[in-house]
Write a structure and sequence with these properties.
Two copies of one chain form a homodimer. By secondary structure, chain A is of the alpha/beta class. Chain A has eleven helices and 22 strands. In chain A, the strands form six sheets. Chain A has an eight-stranded mixed sheet with strand order 9-6-10-12-13-14-17-18, with helices on both faces. A five-stranded antiparallel sheet of chain A has the order 4-3-2-1-5, with no helix packed on it.
C-alpha cells in the first residue's frame, strides 16, 4: 500500500491504480500507468509503468505535481474476424488457460485468467502473418487444477479440430503442462499433424511477457513437419529461440525462469529461431507430417499415485496406498531403489508392503527421483529384489511424470497384471529411449 | 551366461569366473581375468579384464586355446598401520557404506559391500601422500536404507572424531547422500573444520571406478578452508575435477553418471583439480576453517513425509497423511501450488485437506517439484490461498529433500506452530539463498 499521504492525494485527484497519470518532479515529466506499490518499494514512492514498458519509482516530496491524464481503459477486445488467406495454412489455437491467457490485476498485483484464444490472436497480430489462425476456448484453468478428465476433453477436441486445420496449438498453464503433454501423447497416436502445447511464465499483458514469442514459435511448430505431441517453450532466458520438446520427455525444471522446460535424456526435436521465423531440426526421429488416421484413445484410469521414496517413509503409509489407488508409481532413489534392509535395527524396509500391494493386484512401477537417467534394477541387490517381486519399469528412462501418466493410461486398457507390465515396458511414443546420450543431461 | 560350448570348456579346464587365464588366437596372446558375460555380448565371446584395466572380448572358435594361469585371489587386505608423519595434517575417513565401499562379484555381476575405510586407504596409497589418513567403519549400508537414526550416529561420531583430526571424510552411498548431507548440516553447526561426504558411482575394484579420484579430492577438501558440511563428487564425466557442493544445496540428478551431483540454485563452493591436487574456490561465502566450538544438535523427529503433488492426487489420500506423520513437505507444482479449484466439476481440490492437517497441528511446508528455483506463493491466487491457510516456505529456494530434512530437524526442537514456521523460514546454514543467480540453473 502507498503511504497515507499518497493515498489521500490520489483520492483527491480521483486517481486510481491503472490510470494514466503525469508526475512532474525537479523539472522532469513522467507519464505512465500508476502501478500498485510493489512490496519491496518505499510506500512514499510513486510507481509508474512508462510507455516503453519499464517501471519507474518516483520519490514523493511536497514539490512533486501529479495530474490525472486518462482513466484506466476497460479495453474491449473486438471479436476476431478471420479473413482466411487461401495461400496460407491454418492453425487452430485451443485455449486451456494458464498464465499465457492471464492478466495482471493492477490493484492487487494478482494474476487472473482473462484472455480467450481470440483475444490472444487479436493482441498479437503477427500471428496472422504466419498462418490463418483461428481459436476457441476449451476451458480456462490454472494448470495445477488440471485433472485426467481435462486431458480427455483436450484430446477429444484436438482430434475434432485437427481435421480442419494444419496444426494445433494448445495454450496451457506451465505447472502441469508436461503431464498433459504426456497424456496427449498416449491419447493421440498416429498423428498426421503437429499438436503443440505452449504456455508462458509471465502474463500476456506484461512487457516482459514470453507469451508473444512462445505463441509465434508454437504456430511455426504447428506448421512444421513434426507430427508429434510437443511442447514449445523458451530455449534460453533471452528471446532468441524456442525449443520443441517431445511431449513425453520434457519437464518443468525451474519455478520461474522462461526457459524452465527441458528435454530429459534426449535432445529437443528442434529449435525455432524467433527473429528469423525458422525451424532448425536437431533430430530426425520424429513422425513426419503426412496423411494418416489419428488414433484417439482416451481410456484412462486416473487412480494412480506418484510416491517419492525418502528416508523416513513409513511402511504403514506405503501399505495404505492400496486403499486409495489402483496403481502406484514410485520415484525411487538412484537407479530405482527403496528401503529393503531387514537386518539393520535402524532400517525400516518397505519392500514387503510393496510386494503386498502387487500381490493384491495393484501394479507398481519404478521411476527415477534423480529425474535424469535410466532405471536399472539389475546393478544392485536392492533393484533385483524389486524386479523379483514384480516392480515394473526396469531399463526405462522415463520421467516420474510420464511413468505416472502412462500407468493411468495403461490401466484404462487392462486389469491383467501381465498385460499391464507388457504395455508399461513397451515403447509407444518415444517415452522410453533406446539409447542414452551424453547430451541428454544437464 | 556364456554359451554351452564355453561353459563346458571352462569346466573341463577348471576355470571359473575371476580366474586369471591365457587365451591364444590367431597368433595373439591375451592374459587377464575371466569376466562374467555382459548382457549385450555374444555368448560365444570370452571377456577378459586385461592388466591395463580394459576389458576385451575374444570370439571363440575351434582353434582358440585357453589356459588357466592362476585361480581367483582371495585377497586379504593387511590391516593398515598408520605411520603418522608429523609434518602432515590428519584426515579421518568414517565409513557408512555405499558403492565406494563395494565390490563387484564376478560370478553374478552383482555389487556388494566389501571394503572398510582401512581397505580403501590401503588400496589407494596415494591418499597417504596427502595427509595422515586414518579410518574406521561406522556401519555398512546401501544408502537407500539410511534412516534418520543413522544420521544421528554419523553426526555424533563425526563430532567425536573431528577433535583429533583436521578434517572428516564420510564415505556414503550416493542414493541418499544429499539427504544425509542436509541432515548433517543442521546437526553439526558452527563447524571448525570441513566435513566432506563422498561416494562413487562405480565400485572401487572396477577400472572405471570414480572411487580413487573422489577419495583423493575429498581428502583435499577435508584439508581445505571450507568449514562446512559439503559433498565432493565428480564435476564432469571425465576425471578432470570434482565439485565441492554445499550439503544443503545439492542433489543427485542422474541415475548413473559420475557427475550426477549438481548444486541447485547456487554455484558449488569449489573445484578440486585432480591431477594438480589443487582447490579452486568458486565462492567465498563459506565458513572458514578456524577455532570454534562445534554445536552438535541431533534432535530430530523423523515422522515427516515428502508428497509429490500431481494430477489425480486424491483428497482422501492427503487427509490420511495425518495418521502417519507429524509433518508434511509438499513438492508442489510451479511456484508452489496444489489443486485449489472448487468450481470446475472435474477438479479435485486438496486445499481443504491441507488446511485440516494444519489446523490439527501438522505443519505443512512447500517445496518445488521443478527442483530448481524459488517458491513464490504470492504471484498467483493459488499460492496466496496456501499462505493464508498457513503453508510454510514462501520465498524459500530449498530442494524438496532439504525442506524434508529441515522439517524433521525443526520438529525435533518444538511442537509450537509459530515457532516451527519461524525456524523453517529462518536460514540456518545456507539452505535458503538470499539471491537467485542465473548460474544456479541447468
Amino acid at each position: 500500500m502507498y503511504s497515507k499521504t499518497l493515498q489521500n492525494l490520489f483520492k483527491a485527484k480521483k486517481i486510481q491504480i491503472g490510470d494514466k497519470i503525469k508526475v512532474e518532479k525537479e523539472g522532469f515529466e513522467y507519464i505512465g500507468i500508476l502501478m500498485p506499490k510493489p512490496e519491496t518499494q518505499d510506500p512514499n514512492s510513486i510507481v509508474l509503468k512508462l510507455e516503453n514498458g519499464y517501471n519507474v519509482g518516483i520519490g514523493f516530496e511536497k514539490e512533486v505535481k501529479i495530474e490525472l491524464l486518462e482513466k484506466r481503459k476497460k479495453k474491449e477486445f473486438e471479436k476476431l474476424k478471420i479473413k482466411s488467406d487461401p495461400k496460407k495454412l491454418t492453425v487452430s489455437v485451443l485455449g486451456c488457460g494458464g498464465t499465457i491467457a492471464s492478466k495482471i490485476e493492477y490493484e492487487t498485483g494478482a494474476v487472473y485468467p482473462a484472455f480467450t484464444p481470440e483475444d490472444l490472436i487479436q493482441n498479437f497480430p503477427k500471428l496472422k502473418e504466419l498462418a490463418n489462425v483461428k481459436g476457441r476456448m476449451l476451458f480456462n484453468l490454472f494448470s495445477e487444477d488440471m485433472s485426467p478428465e481435462h486431458w480427455k476433453i483436450i484430446a477429444k477436441e484436438t482430434a475434432k479440430e485437427i481435421k480442419n486445420s494444419d496444426g494445433i496449438v494448445l495454450t496451457h498453464g506451465t505447472d502441469t503442462l508436461h503431464y498433459t503433454s504426456a497424456a496427449l501423447s498416449f491419447m493421440l497416436q498416429n498423428l498426421p499433424k503437429p499438436v503443440v502445447l505452449v504456455g508462458s511464465q509471465r502474463s500476456s499483458d506484461r512487457p516482459s511477457s514470453d507469451a508473444e514469442m512462445n505463441l509465434i514459435c508454437s504456430v511455426l511448430t504447428a506448421l512444421s513437419d513434426i507430427a508429434e505431441v510437443v511442447v514449445c517453450m523458451h530455449g534460453e532466458m533471452s528471446d532468441t529461440f524456442n525449443h520443441v520438446h517431445s511431449g513425453v520427455k520434457v519437464r518443468k525444471m525451474h519455478t520461474s525462469r522462461r526457459d524452465t522446460f527441458k528435454s530429459i535424456n534426449v535432445l529437443p526435436y528442434a529449435k525455432v529461431w524467433y527473429e528469423k521465423r525458422e525451424i532448425e531440426y536437431l533430430r530426425n526421429d520424429f513422425k513426419k507430417r503426412g496423411k494418416r488416421d489419428l488414433i484417439l484413445d482416451t481410456k484412462i484410469n486416473p487412480n494412480v499415485c506418484l510416491i517419492w521414496i525418502h528416508p523416513g517413509i513409513k511402511p504403514e503409509f506405503v501399505k495404505s496406498l492400496g486403499k486409495f489407488y489402483d496403481g502406484v508409481v514410485l520415484a525411487g532413489t538412484g537407479l530405482g531403489h527403496v528401503q529393503t534392509n531387514k537386518k539393520d535395527k535402524f532400517c525400516t524396509p518397505i519392500i514387503s508392503e510393496i510386494e503386498n500391494l502387487i500381490n493384491s493386484g495393484i501394479p507398481v512401477a519404478m521411476s527415477p527421483q534423480t529425474i535424469f537417467g535410466r532405471i536399472n534394477m539389475n546393478v544392485y541387490e536392492t533393484g533385483r529384489k524389486l524386479v523379483k517381486i514384480g516392480v515394473m519399469g526396469n531399463y526405462c528412462d522415463w520421467t516420474p511424470e510420464t511413468a505416472l501418466v502412462k500407468l493411468m493410461w495403461v490401466l484404462g486398457h487392462t486389469k491383467n497384471m501381465k498385460k499391464i507390465k507388457e504395455m508399461m515396458e513397451k515403447n509407444y511414443v518415444g517415452e522410453i529411449s533406446e539409447r542414452s546420450i551424453p547430451e541428454g543431461f544437464i
